[in-house]
Amino acid sequence: MPLRPTTSSDLLIDGELRPGSGGTFDVINPATEQVIGQAANATADDMDAAIAAARKAFDNTNWSRDHAFRARCLRQLRDALLAHTDELRELTVAEVGCPVFLTHGPQLVGPVTDLGYFADLAETYEWRRDLGEAKPMGIPNRREIRSEAAGVVGAITPWNFPHQINFAKIGPALAAGCTVVLKAAPDTPWCAALVGKVIAEETDFPAGVINIVTGDDHSLGALLSTDPRVDIVSFTGSTATGRAVMADAAPTLKKVFLELGGKSAFLVLDDADLNAACAMAAFSVVTHAGQGCAITTRLVVPREKLAEATEITRNALAGLRADDPTKPGTVCGPVISARQRDRVESYIRLALEEGGTLETGGDRPERPGYFVSPTLVSGLDNSSRVAREEIFGPVLVILPHDGDQDAIDIANDSPYGLSGAVWGADPDRLDAVVDGVRTGTMGVNGGIWYSADVPFGGYKQSGIGREMGVAGFEEYLETKAVARPA
Ligand code: NAD
Question: Among 173, 200, 260, 452, which residue's CB has the most CB atoms within a 10 Å radius?
Answer without folding.
Answer: 173
